Amino acid sequence: MADVVVIGGGIAGVSAAAYLAQSMDVILLEAEPVLAYHTTGRSAALYYPGYGHSSVGPLSEVSGDFFRNPEFTDHALLSPRGVLTVEVGEQRANVPVGTARRLNRSELRQLLPAFGESVHGGVWEPDPMDVDVAATHQAFVRMFWAAGGVIHRLSRVRALRRDGELWRVDHGDTYTEAPVVVNAAGAWADQIAGLAGIAPVGLIPKRRTAFMIVAPPQSQEWPLTHDVDSSFYFKPDGEQLMCSLADETPSDPCDAQPRELDVSLAIERINLVTTFGIRSVQSQWAGLRTFAPDGGMVIGAAPEADGFYWLAGQGGTGIQTAPAAGQLTASLVKGEGVPDDLVKAGFDLSQMSSDRFT
Any idea what the CATH number is for the domain that residue 247 is in? Predict the structure, then answer.
């Protein structure tokens, strides 16, 4: 018996569980032997508040305080990075409002000397920061444990039904009862809703492939670089350079695996605009980023079932919005409404509702 069962041990689930556990008995269920095995564990995130669906902007903005003033961690969660959008051929980039500025070819090569002749200009945004994803996730886990939260690994949900005032959640070889269930199951969130007899919202998991190459000399301070059409990107990662096709290929929920064709195409595109001359990769992987049909998130109570809450559809913004989204979910479960800092930031909960698709 618990007050709340949270399904999913990625960044969404652990953030919500950590805030809920401050005043409630919470059990977190993870289907895999380790937490954050799927999308969260395969992410290389930025704190980039201008990125993503317009409705998530306030969540990103309010999450900034958690990243800048972290607790339950031994080191900083943010480090300087910046984003460079390069113009190739006929491409022309828009200049966002703020500190961004346009660069000509000479200025681009001062910032990143490895560009070829096909790159003629670009836009430099200095403010986006690297996020230490593993440390962020672990900070929420520590916060959860410190509040007395309980984690069950290898506990895939097999059945989910409302029995009077309680949900019975069959998982692994046992079950747990609680009046509230939070569905933070990522790519599997629609399946979890189906087990509960709740209509799916039409979530679309999309595969993204990435790989590592040996980093060129003096590249550690380079920005994340992509083109106007987001047909590739690369960014430093320690002694390596992480590269991607920036693909968004619809997929069934699964343990996503990289496709050689996607790796090859990314190599071709990056070699076209740089002097890297990539011939081989050090490692490669893929992950699923899950989107609602309109690109926004799904957060809040399911109107057709008492005690069932959504926390899904984070797309490519799950890490940078996790602190505010987790706190929001906890506040809604406790009947406290939208937190004041989100209200001040212009957050509109109706844009997150699960019934906006019906």
Answer: 3.30.9.10
Residue 197 sits in the same domain as residue 213: no
Q: Where do we find the tokens 């109107």?
A: 303
Q: What percent of the chain has pLDDT over 90?
A: 92
What residues have CB less than 8 Å from 178, skipping those under 6 apart? Answer: 1, 2, 3, 4, 5, 27, 166, 167, 169, 307
The first and second tokens of residue 3, run together, are 């007050």
Reported as a single tens digit per residue, the pLDDT across 299-340 is 999 999 999 999 999 999 999 999 999 999 999 999 999 999
Element (H, E) at 11: helix 11-20
Mean of the per-residue pLDDT values for the chain?
Answer: 96
Q: Is the pTM value of this prediction over 0.90?
A: yes
Q: Evaluate the CA torsion angle 45, 27, 145, 72 in order and state its sign.
A: positive
C-alpha to C-alpha distance for 353 and 126, rounded to whole angstroms: 34
Note down the domain range covering 123: 83-127+205-289
Residue 41 confidence class, pLDDT cut points 50, 70, 90:
confident
Spatial distance between the Cα atoms of 189 and 160, rounded to a whole number of angstroms: 13
Instruction: State the Cα–Cα distance between residues 335 and 23, nearest whole angstrom.
Output: 13
If phi over 0 gives left and psi between -120 and 50 gives alpha, with beta otherwise, what is residue 259?
A: beta
Structure tokens at 77: 């969660």
Give the tens place of pLDDT for each residue, 2-29.
Answer: 999 999 999 999 999 999 999 999 999 9
- Phi first, then psi: give them for residue 230, nearest 5 degrees: 50, 50
DSSP three-state, residue 42: helix
User: Both 220 and 237 in a single domain?
Assistant: yes
CA distances from 272 to 145, 178, 227, 301 (A): 48, 55, 12, 48
Q: Note the helical H segments in 181-249.
A: 189-195
Q: SS3 breakdown of the chain: % helix, strand, coil, rounded to 5? A: 30, 30, 40
* 41 vs 237, more confident: 237
